[in-house]
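queue> pop job 88
queue> type: inverse folding (structure -> sequence)
queue> payload:
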């Protein structure tokens, strides 16, 4: 197998083996202004992180709904991910975090992965310039154990290891991000073993909303976005268009050639009330991304300049209808979802392969709500049918890796939510998956929240999950380098967490959570030194994940939002070795300040990424090495010049940190960006 193919595989283009289990990948270069803070700042800043304040998003809060950071008037916060039906945050016992539209706009970064660094329990690994593989791991789990939903649509790539490459997800048009940490397979199936990230797109609040922006800056970057929204008494429609292009920097630390990226994203959403009891909706998102990536030298493992290109297209769509009967006490949802992706790879302008996958999903869900003697009951039943198609084409029509595969799965879900005297809330869920290719799976989850006082609540969550082998792990074939293993078993895991939520008025929320998890039948890659051929196998023993998280949210004044977090994740393989690309310590702190009678918005954000392990491919066999800790800081300013015209300015990597998320891959240094936007 050529190293360019290995790089492409690790970058999520193909995936003959897990990215974090010994496969090389792709990254970029630096500029130089400010240097990384001295080591003594680490301990001081961690303390500041936990004392300074909390996020503009809040984890489910016991006695108050979400507040607007400007005036702190309570707003109803409905969460759509922690259970199969929407619930307020103070009735859910699972560990939840929310990034709202105000925070996303204050951060003002084009790519979602930078915003996700503001959440505890997540490890974000970007393997190069914009467009290189960007993986997100929840509480030390694998990247393909993170399920990503967009308005309910599964975004995980059916081709790329059943995981989403966050490099191709822009923030334009997003209204909120919800994160559920911990095994959630009982609700959402295979990919939710580590947790769920839900992206909710924007709908207009006013009868008419329009906005435009144009921005440019370092690394030859151009960014433009447009939003149009219309709302009536019975309908709401929104259309978002985004264009992002950068010349980038070299993924090779020693190469002068830039590795660029371009992304065009179109997103539309429509909701309508056909009658007093029936609502219908449509969601569609199209992504067209082009990126350049480098090779790795087979003998040294070092990244070297190469003329490699990747073309990625994706369509995500949903049509749904909701029927509400008996004054809302009995609801029905019918939906059909489509995820269709295709990746084409080129080396020196020559076509080297195409990988395409399709997931079609049909869902019926019904929920009954009733009360008996101050006890609220909510019973939900779900029936799902999924169909997968997987297609590989090599450089020639008769290439040995050419193949087509398919799978289908039927799932039945039951969930019971109980509220007792508005103090104790319990939730139980069970799921059965009937899969054509794998052993059938039964998963479950129990969670609860006990409101001890108006300021104090206890939370608990326990459950199990599974993750099916990917198509490449079972059927992938690269002549002379990798062969699939059709006998692989699904990975199985279980875990629990327990937490404390402290709410002091409407202006301070503190959340503390401890967690433990194990993973069995973990899929890893073995290498036959006699044939130089790799194969995926189920690893014996148990992998473990232990740790805790602290989140703080504060609104010290009507125009201030402060947030901070610290997370410790100790993830180990069965032999006791630390899992790669999972820092044990992570922390962050940020502040958002509205000033000048809402004329300006300033945001400052700092994150700390502790030391972590990765593989050194310059040795044979590859050995684990330690990557240094690093700080990342950013600052953004939005200022209204006149009428609807705003000035935007942003600095990324403010300390000009020289860091690596993946060994051997270059990362960008400090960058400045500025532009104009108009909001009507």
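queue> result:
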């Amino acid at each position: 197998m050529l190293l360019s193919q290995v790089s492409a595989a690790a970058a999520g283009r193909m995936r003959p083996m897990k990215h974090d289990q010994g496969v090389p990948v792709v990254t970029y270069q630096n500029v130089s202004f400010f240097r990384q803070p001295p080591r003594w700042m680490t301990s001081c800043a961690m303390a500041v992180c936990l004392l300074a304040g909390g996020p503009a998003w809040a984890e489910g809060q016991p006695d108050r709904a979400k507040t607007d950071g400007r005036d702190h008037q309570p707003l109803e916060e409905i969460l759509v991910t922690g259970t199969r039906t929407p619930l307020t945050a103070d009735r859910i016992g699972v560990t939840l975090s929310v990034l709202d539209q105000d925070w996303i706009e204050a951060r003002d970064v084009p790519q979602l992965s930078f915003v996700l660094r503001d959440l505890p329990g997540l490890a974000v690994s970007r393997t190069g310039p914009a467009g290189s593989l960007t993986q997100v791991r929840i509480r030390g789990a694998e990247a393909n154990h993170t399920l990503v939903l967009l308005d309910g649509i599964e975004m995980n790539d059916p081709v790329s290891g059943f995981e989403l490459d966050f490099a191709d997800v822009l923030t334009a048009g997003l209204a909120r991000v919800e994160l559920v940490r911990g095994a959630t397979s009982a609700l959402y199936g295979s990919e939710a073993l580590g947790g769920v990230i839900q992206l909710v797109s924007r709908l207009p609040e006013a009868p008419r909303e329009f906005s435009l922006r144009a921005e440019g800056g370092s690394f030859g970057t151009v960014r433009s976005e447009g939003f149009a929204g219309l709302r009536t008494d019975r309908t709401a429609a929104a259309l978002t268009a985004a264009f992002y292009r950068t010349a980038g920097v070299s993924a090779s630390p020693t190469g002068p050639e830039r590795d660029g990226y371009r992304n065009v994203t179109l997103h539309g959403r429509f909701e309508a009330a056909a009658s007093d009891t029936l609502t219908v909706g449509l969601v569609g998102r199209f992504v067209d991304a082009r990126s350049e990536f480098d090779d790795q030298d087979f003998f040294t493992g070092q990244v070297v300049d190469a003329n490699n290109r990747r073309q990625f297209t994706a369509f995500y769509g949903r049509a749904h209808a909701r029927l509400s009967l008996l004054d809302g006490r009995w609801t029905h949802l019918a939906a059909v979802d489509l995820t269709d992706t295709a990746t084409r790879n080129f080396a020196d302008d020559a076509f080297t392969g195409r990988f395409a996958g399709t997931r079609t999903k049909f869902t019926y869900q019904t929920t009954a709500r009733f009360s008996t003697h101050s006890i609220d009951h909510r019973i939900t039943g779900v029936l799902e049918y999924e169909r997968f198609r997987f297609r590989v084409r090599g450089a020639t029509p008769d290439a040995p890796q050419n193949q087509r595969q398919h799978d289908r799965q039927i799932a039945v879900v039951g969930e019971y939510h109980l509220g007792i005297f508005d103090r104790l809330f319990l939730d139980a869920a069970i799921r059965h998956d009937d899969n054509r290719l794998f052993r059938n799976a039964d998963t479950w989850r129990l969670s609860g929240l006990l409101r001890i006082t108006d300021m104090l609540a206890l939370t608990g969550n326990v459950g199990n999950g599974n993750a099916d082998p990917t198509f490449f792990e079972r059927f992938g074939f690269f002549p002379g380098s990798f062969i699939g293993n059709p006998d692989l078993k699904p990975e199985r895991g279980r875990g629990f967490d327990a937490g404390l939520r402290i709410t002091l008025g409407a202006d301070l929320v503190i959340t503390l959570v401890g967690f433990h998890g194990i993973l069995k039948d973990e899929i890893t890659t073995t290498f036959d030194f006699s044939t130089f051929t790799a194969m995926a196998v189920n690893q014996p023993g148990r992998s473990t994940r232990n740790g805790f998280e602290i989140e703080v949210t504060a609104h010290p004044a009507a125009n201030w939002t402060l947030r901070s977090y610290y997370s410790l994740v100790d993830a180990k393989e069965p032999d006791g070795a630390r899992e790669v690309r999972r820092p044990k310590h992570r922390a962050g702190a940020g502040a958002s300040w509205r000033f000048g009678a809402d004329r300006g918005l300033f945001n400052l954000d700092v994150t700390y990424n502790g030391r972590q392990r990765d593989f050194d491919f310059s040795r044979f066999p590859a050995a684990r090495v330690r990557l240094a800790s690093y700080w990342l800081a950013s600052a953004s300013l939005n200022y209204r010049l006149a009428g609807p015209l705003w000035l935007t300015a942003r600095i990324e990597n403010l300390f000009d940190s020289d860091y690596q998320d993946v060994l051997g891959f270059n990362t960008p240094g400090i960058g400045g960006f500025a532009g104009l936007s108009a909001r009507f």
